[in-house]
Amino acid sequence: MYKILHLPRVERRILSLILMVLLFLALVGGWIIHRSVQVVQSQSRSYQDAQTIAELDELLIELIDAETGQRGYIITDNPAFLRPYDQSITKIPILQRKLQPFLQSYGIPTQQTTDLRKAIDDKLAFLKQTIHEKSLGHAREVIATIAQGRGFVTMNDIRSMIHRMDRLILQQESAERDRAYHYLRDSVVWIAIAGLLFLLFVTASYFRILSALSAKERLNQKIKELANQDGLTKSLNRAAFLEYASSTIEQAMRDGETIAVLFVDLDGFKSVNDTFGHEVGDDVLRNVAHNFRGAVRFADLIARFGGDEFVVLVRHAEMEHELMTLAQKMLDTFSDDSLQNISTNLGASIGIAVFPRDGDTIDLLLKSADAAMYRVKQMGGHRAEFFRDALNENIRDEQRLKNDLYGAFERNELDVYYQPIMGENRQLQGMEALVRWNHPQYGVLSPASFLPIAEVSGLLPKLSMCVLEKAITDTAQWLRTYPMLWLSINISEQDIRLHHGLYSHLDTLLANWQVNPSSIQLEITESSLLRPNAADALKDFHSLGVRLAVDDFGTGYSSLAYLQRFSLDCIKIDRSFIESLPENEYNKKLVTAMISMAHSLELSVTAEGIETEGQERFLLGVGCKSLQGYKYGEPIPIQQFCDQYFLEG
Question: Is 421 left (phi over 0), alpha (psi -120 to 50) or beta?
Answer without folding.
Answer: beta
